[in-house]
Amino acid sequence: MKYTIFTSMIFLMLFIFGGMVMVSQVKAEDNKTIEFTDRGWPKILDDDKWTSQLVFDTVQACYQGTIRWVVLSHPTLLNQIPTLAAQRQMMEHCFCVMDKIRKENKAEDYRKKVLDPEWGGNLFMLKAMECVNEYKTLPNFFTKIIETPSDNETNKPTVVPEGETEDSKEESPDQKQEESEGSPQTIFQG
After folding, report:
1. What is the pLDDT of residue 24?
2. Which residues pair with 42 in a beta bridge?
3. Which of 72, 91, 168, 175 has the largest count of CB atoms under 10 Å?
4. Are 44 and 51 in contact (CB under 8 A)?
5. At what angle do helices 117-135 and 52-73 cross, to 10 degrees?
6. Closest to 127 (Cα-Cα) out of 184, 75, 58, 78
7. Residue 44 contacts by C-beta under 8 Å, 6 or more apart in sequence?
8. Where is average pLDDT lowest: 9-13, 35-39, 76-80, 111-115?
9. How far apart, in whole angstroms, are the C-alpha atoms of residue 141 and residue 132?
10. DSSP state of 148
11. How open is the CA angle 3-7-11, to the nearest 5 degrees?
12. DSSP summary character for residue 45
């Protein structure tokens, strides 16, 4: 009985020690050189692929441009933080823009050209307009309610005082209330 316990303990110690030796063995491999992009990111994909970084940068640029576009169209939204619903609409819009850009541009060509502000700005604006018109993105910011004038108002010319534009005319209180009820501004409020 003493020998079996003693033998079992020695066998167990050898098993544990042998396992540690096998685990600690290091395998030798050839040295691999890691390639980096010109911006310092590890190069994982081929040159003709859209990297996650390029996709993120493009969507982020679109998002910032969309915020500027919305604020230019609705100046009262300046300095207001967009609600989650507004942020979601703007991201969906930018995904549309991104997909349109990727469909028509090879990654390497885009990477070279996008640094030109005029080319990039024109491309983003063109694709943004296509998304708004074709896919109705940003519905709470860029929808127009087309009102049909009544027969009495159809032939009346619009009278604008000298020095003012038609947009600067004074509005009646019920017109202001109607505009504020369906206003795109409500989506930006926090």
Report:
1. 54
2. 36
3. 91
4. yes
5. 70
6. 58
7. 51
8. 9-13
9. 10
10. P
11. 175
12. S
